[in-house]
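Entry 14. Two folds queued back to back today. First construct below, sequence then structure tokens.
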Amino acid sequence: MSNLGQFDSDFYQSNYNIDNQEQSYNDSNAYGNLYGSRKQQASERPQPAFVPPEMLVSSSYAGQFFQPASNQDYYSPSSYVDSFDEEPPLLEELGINFDHIWQKTLTVLNPLKPADGSIMNETDLTGPILFCGVLGASLLLAGKVQFGYVYGMSAIGCLGIHALLNLMSSSGVSYGCVASILGYCLLPMVILPSCAIFSSLQGTFGTVLALVIIGWCSLSASKIVTSALAMEGQQLLIAYPCALLYGLFALLTVF
């Protein structure tokens, strides 16, 4: 029982006493007096004098704002139309001229027609790529899938002819020009695989036809090269390596 009484006394023991209660009461009275004195001072503060309404209106800014000058011609749609009209056609920007392609094709098909050196000296690869694709398609119809050989021999042959012409010509020639000339002169070679679709070329008829096609391609190529590079008197020297190159395509077609 003595332990229970000691527990009760410890449980209810506190530091709060009557003196603390009186101190908190005095603090609350002091806060009330301070709040009342501030309120009284605020009520006793003098009111501001009367201000005329004209002085309350804020004065407007009398300066000038920056306003950029508008140019009607700059925003008008006619300026855009004029700019588009002055631009060259898309095919001309890509270097594709159908008139020149047609003239080169006619020059190749007619070996006796004189070549225009200004047109033949262009780096036009549209026709050569097209004619190589037609040759590969003709071989495909004849039962031979030789697209890789066609493009591979064309690239290697153009490198060899390009090196040879640079040694023979004093002015020099670009690789694109050589590839363009040899590619256009590949057009008669398309006749050979076209005939192979209907009959076999491993005979006398095939041999004669292959020789005629080789002579046709090499004669056209040498004529165009001499006209474009001003190499007069050297046509036979140029026709010989061209005949070797086109002979490879003929062998690929016949055998």
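Second construct, same run, same settings:
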Amino acid sequence: MEPPKMNPVVEPLSWMLGTWLSDPPGAGTYPTLQPFQYLEEVHISHVGQPMLNFSFNSFHPDTRRPLHRECGFIRLKPDTNKVAFISAQNTGVVEVEEGEVNGQELCIASHSIARISFAKEPHVEQITRKFRLNSEGKLEQTVSMATTTQPLTQHLHVTYKRVTP
């Protein structure tokens, strides 16, 4: 079967497409946590619709035990650089982030966050993300978050190497 043609609406995000692996391991920190490292595999694809599909799967660097998971969609408002990032996470958080793509950089911030009734505290109240394709062709992601007990603070930074287009 022939792969679907990319919908022209998502062309400004085509630089994100592919399977990516963290290289080196990602780094996490937060005022309430000990610094940590993680491995992550990212799949960003399309099926011809005017959106991208994504999944982020992180693992413990030593044991390969599954950690954080999230999946969803990245939509572009046609004929603009406005982007929506819709994500469901294995922690019970569902979020919509919105922002803009400018060249090979995507900056988004939470628009709405919902959680399951028994999500552990402190609750996430705000998230920002920045994706960019660096000069070496690697994808970088920086995530900051605010919780009910902490102001907006950088939480994660990871660089990915593309392993398949």
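Quick look at the second one. The mean pLDDT is 97. The longest strand covers residues 33-45.
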